[in-house]
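Internal ticket #5521
Category: modeling
Description: The requester needs a full-assembly model to guide mutagenesis choices. All entity lines are attached below as received. Residue total reported by intake: 242.
Assigned to: D.W.
Attached entities:
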Amino acid sequence: MHRFFAEKRAENLLYLAKEDIKHFKDVLRIKDDEEVEVYIDGAGYIAVLNSYTKDELSLKIISEIKEKYESELKISLFQSLVKSDKMDFIIQKAIEMGVYSIVPIETKRSIVKKKDIKDKKLERYKNIAKAAAMQSKREFIPSVSDAMKLSEAKEILDDFDLVLIAYEDELDNSIKNYDIKDKKNIAIVVGPEGGFDIGEIDELKKFGYKSISLGKRILRAETAPIALLTMLYYEFNGSGLL
Ligand code: SAM
């Protein structure tokens, strides 16, 4: 069954965003009596088409979806800015994996800088996030926030139960040293193609954040977040479900 995110709800009607109407009608060619899943504010419903014009499409709620698709562990990915196609890939895959939010960060060796992330680029990231959330049956669209410098991100990192920095030169520490099942809210920080500057790692450590190894091989910037997310969800879920 196809899944959509509604933009607004009025009584038992759910309204799609204007940009999704074409996708609903012309790309997926959903029939008038075909049931679809629609999420709004984290709640899901089975719904069918109610009315349609090229500017507005409403769906009538038939029932509520009880099954949960989200992990109770919220992981936020603080991802150093990397080249455009790699960033697109990371956003798409991280959202398929279940990430709660993505914060693009400028680190010393980021080739792409905060100033390069103009409105159009951010909109592109958000569109990738939305498509990935629809495809992977997420219950909400994870946020992709404005790019910020690592120094700005440090302030936000304080709000998490655990902050793990994937650092290629870390030799000892790994996620095996943490009880992930105990955590609710984890931030992971991943470096750019050229890696972190040692000064950045030292600075983050002063705040009490930990660097971890992902193993002895050096992973590409776009592989590292996916590998780390896989490890964390595995540790948290155990059973492999949710
Ligand atoms: N230029 C660096 C080098 O050659 O040593 C490699 C950087 S790597 C391509 C990009 C980022 O992925 C790193 O900054 C780190 O966050 C993460 N990463 C890759 N391999 C890792 C590993 N084995 N352990 C921890 N983090 C890793």
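Resolution: model delivered.
Comment from assignee: Residues 4 and 38 are 5 Å apart (CA to CA).
Ticket closed.
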